[in-house]
Amino acid sequence: MAYKNIKGERYGRLEVIEHIGTRRGKALWKCKCDCGNYADVTGDSLRQGKTKSCGCLGDDNRRKITTRNRYGATKHNQCKEGKKSRIYRIYDAMHQRCYNEKNGAYKHYGGRGIVICDEWKNNFESFFQWSLKNGYSDDLSIDRIDNDGNYEPSNCRWADMTLQGLNRGIQDNNTSGHKGVSLIKKTGKYRAYIKIKGKQIHLGHYDYLQDAIEAREKAEKLYMK
Asked: Where in the chain is the domain with CATH 3.30.730?
């Protein structure tokens, strides 16, 4: 049977090694794949581009598809077998707060105009790499330095609960207009306090608002050392 000699030629990841016979009337060639495996492929299938590897190319493409997440990242490998890593969950929660109106925290974030910068919004890989270079660890959480600013590299840091508590904005039930200071209507005095690691520390009662504010500020400097 006459056939075109393609020994030594390359097709995709395959290098043709030798002619080994026929398959359904077609010349059959033994090929070595770049991954190290061998495959027997007909000349027609090689020349027409139907077979480009031993099968590893298709496997690689399938892995890329299954690891791709809704934010377009494929390199980070932070979603395995349906389980999301802690840093990916933080990233997802950031999106929910800013863009999902049904999220319980939306009114404090997206509802106030807080958004995610273009660099991070649809690119988890960029956020992931920034996090690794800027002190991420499993005991820290994402924190905005300016509580009224957006999620972006220049306004974000990884902080513990103490630092986050100090940086938290004024709560809805605040009666003084100042963080860590409340007006006690019954006595007309101002109470200063600070929350550290989930525990509220009383800083005293004051006749004047400015005195209570100064007590709170001193406490912030003390606990932020």
From this structure: 167-223
